[in-house]
Design brief:
heterodimer, A: mainly beta, five-stranded antiparallel beta sheet, 47% strand, disordered N terminus, B: ten-stranded mixed beta sheet, five-stranded mixed beta sheet, 23 strands, elongated, disordered C terminus
Chain lengths: 541, 1041
């Protein structure tokens, strides 16, 4: 019998199947089923895709994590180590005795004194030499740390360690020198200042007879190179200095630079001191003479940049205020701005404000304005801009007091109005405090006087009317050597910032004309909110 | 026959009855001395023909015993039964009626349910008293081995008479269907105790081996055995199994003094159902899932025989030899694209180790024979020369058989197709290269001078190869604190591989890949498009569109390297997936084949995709689930494809599993790029499309009138493509393919639904959602593929018949294709061109790609870093006075290799080192140094192990303040301050030995888990690579199994 040949079952490949699906051999019923499956599966994938693409409201789930780490990334960084530089007394740079003794220069009866105080939550303070040798510790008093009775023959470094960076905590120091005889008659006083990478000075004239000496101190372990850039009253371009403007300051060293020699015959000078490697301390000492007659001495404090403009958040900070002028003084105002500006200058006094002048300032150039003599009652100057947002202005003023032929002047630099500030007065010097309130609201101010041992002697509360200035003598604060100012201690609304300056006078000067102003040191904490994030891109940014 | 009539169940009884009924009444001889034994299992497909062949012999055995080992026999405990049959005797005296004398033949069916092998079943069948007293010879047959000639038994008996001392006489074995195809003509044995038939399986039988007589062994199927020998030797040894017992039996025949002889004139057609995998081990037929390999059993039989030969003291050496040869065979089999066989060979020595006691016992059984007799078969051991020649012949035969020969017309047709295709591809490559050149013209100089590429989201890299490898393989990351335990960034492994191509230059590898990405992506899509259409213009247009898409998505503008890797390797992965399962369009008259090589390549390319964007594991999972349903065969292949990806991503999965409660599962959604809120947005329940809209506008910004027109053209192109893709769903010729393409798109859409809802990191202080770009890549791939499928698969017919070609051309589908194809190609090309225009118009304003202006750190700082592994420099950058960026640098750049998804997510959740420990300390130090000089910070940096601080050059005031604060602090020494930045060394530490604490890293480095992972990764990758290596051209066409 013949049997059907059994054949090996050969599997169709997928390709063959795919090429001939639902081939002609399928029955109509199967074909319908196939079509059904095709349509259903086709619609299913399209529907799923469509849902994935547009379905947002169906499942309103979302991840809501993150943020803790981001919050942790923000750091509150406070400076708890304060280092201030207190310059040496103002004397003559060249004291060699030569020629006729009648014509040789002399420092006469030049005396100097310094006083240091640390208030608030301070752990400890020391006074060191620039080279780093410890000179003295501040003595802990009942309410603050204090050290007085020091001479100021050499520059000193005033270090304070804070327990916490709070408002009202800080260190203040003042040096003063005075002479009623010799070639540097008058008084010079300044507050100790902190180190900066870049600092600015608006210096009085560099005409013949005036010596402006920039002193740069470096207390770090590394030498640094310092550049001095100069702007004058004659041109709105940078001045080409007659001397080299690069100074190398060695580690723990001090260097001087003669600004008058570098840029002579300017009625004012805007000096920018910038250090490359480490922040440096700097100050300018000015001595003026006319022939054999002393025309005064003083320090030029650093000028702080003031952004003037009515759009500023606080009306207190929208003005540059110079506190510490008095009747009969002649005032010359010097302004420097990188942009053209129109400014108005007003006198502030116990009886309110009074317009002094309006001035337009040319960009890149120092503008010197002679304001004439100070009107009665006026104790401070305010520079404001009528424009909504104006550029940055650096302001200083010299207020000259004349005696019998001899003169002395004080150099005032504008400072930020702050809520907490303080100053201290060296032994042998008296001070009268000027509190200026350029803002539109009255300011209540608490003045705390502390004696030489650091104990509170007397507390006085004053109210300063808007747009006015107030004078309070140091003696009215008891036997105080240090004054700490707190604006708005009772918590009234508005911005609370007052500018404080102290006019200094040496007790042993007799009829010699003397003028010097010490600006209060801010006791506001140096705190910054800094966020730090890790990034792989540091090397390309 | 039985297959034709499925309604009546086929049973052994019915088969037998049918066969008996059909026995021819021609006069024959009946040999009372012979009993034939046929074993049978559940699979009765071959038995009828075997029975027919046996019952039509000219000399019939007096007894035919059927050993029924089927499961039926076991279940019902059915009893033996006998059928009788009488045949007229040839040449014998006639009886009274003048009719020939008839002799009865007994056909006994004996259930042997417990038989474990062929020999076992035979033994059980003859022990039941079924033999006659006259029986002296057994004719052994499998149910699937039939004597080809009617004279087979006659000739066997003749051989028996002519071979004195022969106790086992075998037959020549040929194929079941093709009796001219030889299987074997007796076996010889090699020096390694292995069987060698010295004939080529499948070669044509030209009686070339008919001079063989004495052989070492024969196949028991169709062999004639002396009953006394069978009894004396207690039959076969069931331990050797069906595949090995014949050889062992032959060996024992020799050892007992007998001869084993092959009778080449006796031909038995043998289906070898179990060996060729159409029958299960239990004896059931296999039909559903294709042939099943019996390689494992064959290997076992081979090893059992060899191991029984060696004495105890030789065993350890033999085992070591087996391990080595097993490895060799593993590699060879992988190379031959036979992974299952490879694994069998790899495992074989270990299985043989487990069998040691049994093999010792088997050896002892052999020892009972006199040793001297062994010398008798030494002449049957093959020589080396014989073996070499045999192997060569096998190779030549295989080469001949696998070659597909096309006619000269077809060859010419292919040649012209190839020429046209090459031209199109060249054009595509040229366009791609042109695009790259235009995009990175300004960076080219920097790139080729070795400077690192970067963008707003891609960190630069200046890492050495060794550092990269270590970072990519160690569960330790330096991206948080000074190192923390974390899964390595998966993308690191991609960089490791890419850098191999540039000789270990990591940054060059990054830049070159960026440059080549457009061209590579296009060529890769060209390959994929070829799966659904053979139309060159359509493949070209869709590839061009695919190459422009990354520009439209802003990937080129941001040098989004992980996504570019996806755009290059994703089409390639799917191309190989379709190739592997044999679902692809081909140029007629070629056929599509399934390919294990393509499966390995799919697994490898998929690994690149998964490592670059681990979130794509989600859609891959979905797609494989659906493909397993749609694809009918080769499911095991589909299941094996994701294996390398899974192993490569193991540390990430491990970390996810361990920290799933802490929310670290989110790391799966992150990649190597820096989270950017402007690109990815914050987590929101936003739809993919609206998220895509904002991404699109951020990629192109406020558009001018011209670019609005261009955008409209692109949008139109996309809409038309989507419409075509939808139509494709309902075209009958591409049902399966379009569903698979749409599955890819749908999986992408599902991912696109999830991704915008998951937060993966912080951009300054806002959390950033996972990117939708990976989802977009799947979506666009699926839609483009489906759109290409709309016009049908074949471009032209190949036929020698003009009529056929004309028929093909006039076919409705072809007519539709003829119109729709160019139209679609033009639309796609136009929108690609518009896309290029858009990218070009907004390039200068939106590209953030750049190269580092120098090699990062000043040289001296790089040298400091090179001094030891633990050396670190703190990089600081500030451009405002209230924010500082810092980086713990261990290479001269930021560095890309320090990107880490695990720590990125942990930092976002503030669960890791972020809120405490060294990270917080570093943060505070950086902030303090920006605010003021701080000696304490510098001191703590030195204590942490830093050797210096680097501040990149910049003119901003905060930067110079920062620099001054650092230099002014005690304990720092300014070393360099130049155009590449300021580098400050920390003094008071011993330069050169200063390092961060590396104990944690060391511990992770020598973690046994890491080693296990690496070994696993290495072995699997190597295995896939070996399988992926193309063989010589003769083997290109793989057998479709």
């Amino acid at each position: 019998m013949k049997r059907t040949q059994e054949t090996r079952t050969t599997k169709k490949t997928n390709a063959q199947k795919a090429a001939s699906p639902s081939a002609a051999t399928v029955t109509p019923g199967r074909r319908a089923a196939l079509w059904g499956v095709s349509v259903v599966s086709g619609l299913a994938v399209v529907a799923l895709t469509a849902f994935g693409l547009v379905g947002s409201g169906v499942l309103p789930v979302k991840d809501s994590v993150g943020g803790e780490a981001a919050a942790a990334a923000t750091q509150r960084v406070s400076q708890t180590l304060l280092t201030d530089y207190c310059p040496s007394r103002v004397g003559l740079s060249d004291q060699e005795a030569y020629g006729d003794s009648q014509f040789s220069v002399s420092q006469g009866n030049l005396s100097s004194a310094s006083r240091f105080a640390a208030v608030g939550s301070v752990y400890g303070s020391t006074v060191n030499s620039v080279a780093g040798t410890k000179l003295a510790d501040l003595v802990s008093g009942d309410d603050s740390l204090a050290l007085g009775g020091q001479k100021a023959e050499e520059s000193t470094i005033f270090n304070s360690t804070l327990l916490s960076a709070d408002a009202g905590t800080g260190a203040v120091g003042t040096v003063a020198s005075w002479a009623s005889k010799g070639d540097v008659q008058g008084i010079a006083a300044t507050a100790c200042s902190s180190a900066q990478l870049t600092s600015h000075f608006v210096v009085p004239q560099t005409t013949t007879g005036t010596t402006n000496t920039l002193v740069v101190a470096n207390t770090s372990d590394k030498p640094t190179s310092v550049d001095v850039a100069l702007r004058g009253t004659t041109t709105n371009k940078a001045l080409a200095a007659s001397t080299s403007t690069a100074i190398t300051v060695g580690a723990h060293g001090e260097k001087t630079f003669d600004l008058s020699a570098a840029a002579p015959n300017q009625k004012g000078l805007f000096v920018t001191v910038s250090s490359k490697v480490v922040p440096v301390f700097s100050t300018v000492k000015v001595t003026a003479a006319e022939g054999l007659t002393s025309k005064g001495v003083d320090y030029v404090p650093q000028a702080q940049a003031q952004r003037l403009g009515s759009s500023e958040a606080s009306s207190a900070t929208a003005s540059a205020v110079l506190a510490g002028v008095s009747e009969h003084q002649n005032v010359t105002l010097r302004l420097y701005s990188a942009a053209d500006q129109t400014l108005s200058v007003t006198w502030l006094g116990s009886k309110g404000e009074r317009n002094a002048t309006n001035a337009s300032v040319e960009a890149g150039k120092v503008t010197a304005l002679d304001l004439g003599s100070v009107p009665s009652n006026a104790t401070a100057l305010a520079v404001t801009s009528k424009e909504a947002s104006a550029g940055v202005v650096y302001v200083s003023a010299t207020a000259t007091t004349s005696g019998n032929g001899q003169q002395d002047f004080s150099v005032l630099s504008s400072q930020q109005a702050v809520q907490h500030s303080g100053l201290t007065v060296p032994d042998g010097v008296s001070a009268s405090l000027v509190l200026a309130n350029p803002s539109d609201t009255d300011q209540k101010v608490t003045l705390e006087g502390m004696d030489g041992n650091g104990a509170v002697a007397k507390t006085v509360v004053k109210t300063i009317a808007a747009h006015s200035a107030l004078r309070v003598t140091m003696s009215s604060l008891g036997n105080a050597r240090t004054a700490v100012m707190t604006a708005d201690s009772d918590g009234t609304s508005g911005s609370h910032a007052v500018t404080l300056g102290a006019q200094m006078s040496a007790d042993a000067m007799g009829s010699t004309a003397q003028a010097s102003v010490v600006e209060a040191t801010s006791l506001m904490p140096q705190t910054a909110e800094v966020s730090a994030t890790r990034s792989l891109m540091v090397s390309v940014e | 026959m039985n297959e034709k009539n499925p309604k009546s169940p086929v049973t052994l009884r019915s088969v037998l009855a049918e066969s008996v009924a059909a026995v021819a009444r021609t006069p024959r001889q009946v040999n009372a001395g012979v009993a034939a034994v046929i074993t049978v299992e559940s699979d009765l497909a071959y038995l009828p023909r075997t029975l027919d062949a046996v019952l039509s012999q000219t000399v019939l055995p007096a007894v035919l015993i059927i050993a029924d080992s089927s499961s039926n026999a076991a279940e019902k405990g059915s009893a033996a039964y006998t059928e009788r049959l009488s045949v007229p005797v040839r040449g014998a005296a006639r009886n009274n009626d003048r009719r020939p004398v008839e002799l009865p033949i007994e056909i006994c069916v004996v259930p042997t349910p417990h038989a474990t092998s062929f020999g076992d079943a035979v033994g059980a069948a003859i022990s039941g008293g079924t033999l006659r007293s006259t029986t002296s010879l057994l004719w052994l047959l499998h149910d699937d081995s039939r004597p080809v000639s009617e004279h087979s038994l006659e000739m066997l008996l003749e051989a028996d008479r002519n071979s004195p001392g022969a106790k086992l006489i075998g037959a020549k074995q040929v194929e079941w269907d093709d009796t001219s195809a030889l299987q074997n003509v007796g076996y010889y044995i090699t020096g390694n105790h292995q069987r060698a038939n010295l004939s080529v399986d499948g070669e044509e039988d030209q009686d070339q081996y008919n001079d063989r007589q004495d052989v070492f062994g024969v196949s028991l199927a169709g062999s004639l055995v002396s009953l006394s020998t069978w009894m004396n030797l207690s039959g076969t040894d069931a331990w050797y199994g069906t595949f090995g017992e014949g050889l062992d039996f032959a060996r024992r025949v020799y050892l007992s003094g007998g001869r084993v002889v092959v009778a080449p004139r006796v031909v038995v057609a043998h289906r070898r159902a179990r060996l060729s995998g159409v029958r299960t081990r239990e004896g059931r037929p296999i039909e559903a899932d294709g042939p099943r390999s019996a390689y494992s059993e064959a290997v076992t039989a081979r090893d059992k025989f060899a191991s029984s030969e060696v004495p105890v003291w030789e065993k350890p050496f033999l085992w070591i030899w087996h391990v080595l040869t097993g490895l060799g065979r593993f590699v060879m089999n992988l190379f031959a694209k036979k992974p299952y066989e490879a694994v069998c060979e790899l495992v074989a020595p270990w299985r043989s180790l487990v069998r040691t006691p049994q093999s010792l016992a088997a050896h002892m059984r052999l020892r009972s024979f006199p040793r001297g007799d062994r010398a008798r078969f030494s002449s049957l051991v093959t020589s080396r020369a014989q073996l070499t020649e045999w192997r060569a012949r096998r190779k030549v035969f295989a080469a001949q058989r696998n070659r597909v020969v096309f006619g000269p017309l077809a060859v010419e047709h292919f040649r012209s197709l190839r020429r046209r295709r090459t031209a199109w591809i060249l054009l595509l490559v040229l366009l791609g290269v042109g695009m790259s050149m235009a995009m990175s013209w300004q960076q080219l100089g920097g790139i080729f001078s070795g400077l690192s590429l970067y963008s707003s989201i891609l960190a630069p890299s200046a890492a050495g190869y060794a550092t990269l490898v270590k970072t990519a393989t160690t569960m330790w990351s330096f991206s948080s604190g000074l190192g923390t335990a974390a899964a390595p960034l998966p993308f690191g492994l991609v960089l490791v591989v890419l850098s191999v191509l540039t000789g270990g230059h990591v940054s060059l590898a990054i830049s070159l890949f960026f440059l080549c990405a457009p061209a590579l992506g296009m060529v890769s899509f060209w390959a994929l498009a070829g799966v659904v259409t053979r139309s060159n213009p359509l493949r070209f247009a869709s590839s061009l569109l695919w190459g422009v898409l990354p520009g439209v998505l802003g990937l080129y503008q941001t040098a989004n390297l992980p996504m570019l890797v996806v755009f290059v390797f994703l089409p390639l992965s799917f191309f190989f997936v379709f190739r592997a399962v044999g679902m692809y369009a081909v140029d007629a008259p070629r056929r599509a084949y399934s390919s294990i090589q393509a499966a390995a390549l799919a697994g490898l390319s998929m690994t690149f995709v998964a490592l670059s964007e681990p979130q794509l594991v989600v859609p891959f999972f979905l797609i494989f689930a659906v493909f397993l349903v749609i694809v009918r065969t080769h499911r095991a292949m589909l299941l094996l494809m994701p294996l390398p990806s899974i192993i490569a991503l193991m540390p990430t999965f491990f970390s996810v599993l361990l920290h799933v409660r802490e929310g670290l599962w989110r790391q799966v959604f992150a990649d190597a790029t820096t989270p950017d809120v402007t690109l990815s947005g914050s987590p929101s329940a936003q739809s993919f499309l609206s998220r895509f809209g904002s991404l699109f506008s951020s990629a192109f910004g406020v558009s001018s009138g011209a670019s609005k027109v261009l955008a409209a053209i692109v949008a139109c192109g996309i809409l038309i493509a989507v419409a075509c893709a939808v139509i494709a769903l309902f075209i009958p010729s591409g049902l399966r393919m379009s569903r698979m393409a749409w599955t890819v798109a749908a999986a992408g859409a599902v991912l696109g639904f999830i991704a915008p809802r998951v937060a993966i990191g912080l951009d300054s202080d806002v959390s950033v959602a996972a990117s939708i770009l990976p989802a977009a890549s799947f979506l666009s791939l699926g839609v483009l593929m489906a759109a290409c499928a709309v016009t049908g698969r074949n471009d032209g017919a190949f036929s020698v018949s003009v009529k056929e070609i004309a028929d093909h051309r006039s076919h409705a589908g072809m007519r539709f294709a003829k119109v729709s194809r160019p139209l679609l190609a033009v639309v796609m090309t136009l929108s690609a061109a518009a896309g290029v225009g858009m990218v070009g118009a907004t390039w200068t304003s939106h590209s953030t790609v750049g190269v580092m202006s120098s090699e990062g750190l000043p040289i001296i700082a790089s040298e400091d870093l090179a001094e030891n592994d633990g050396a670190r420099v703190l990089g600081l950058y500030a451009d405002t006075s209230n924010h500082i960026d810092y980086s713990v640098m261990r290479t001269p750049a930021g560095d890309l290799i320090d990107a880490n998804a695990t720590t990125q997510v942990a930092d976002m959740l503030a669960t890791g080192d972020a809120s405490k420990g060294t990270e917080a300390q570093l943060r505070a130090i950086a902030a303090k140094l920006l605010a003021s000089n701080d000696n304490a910070s510098i001191a703590s940096l030195a204590k942490l192990g830093f050797s210096g601080i680097y501040i990149p050059a910049s003119t901003s005031t905060p930067r110079s303040n920062l620099a001054a604060h650092v230099t002014a602090s005690d304990g720092t020494e300014q070393v360099v301050d130049n155009s590449s930045g300021l580098y400050v060394r920390l003094t008071g530490v011993e330069q050169g030995t200063q390092h961060i604490a590396t104990a944690g890293e060391m511990a992770s480095y020598s973690d046994p888990l890491r080693k296990v992972w690496l070994v696993l990764l290495g072995v699997v990758t190597l295995a896939y690579l070996i399988v992926a290596i193309p063989r010589s051209r003769t083997f290109v066409q793989e057998e479709d199994r």
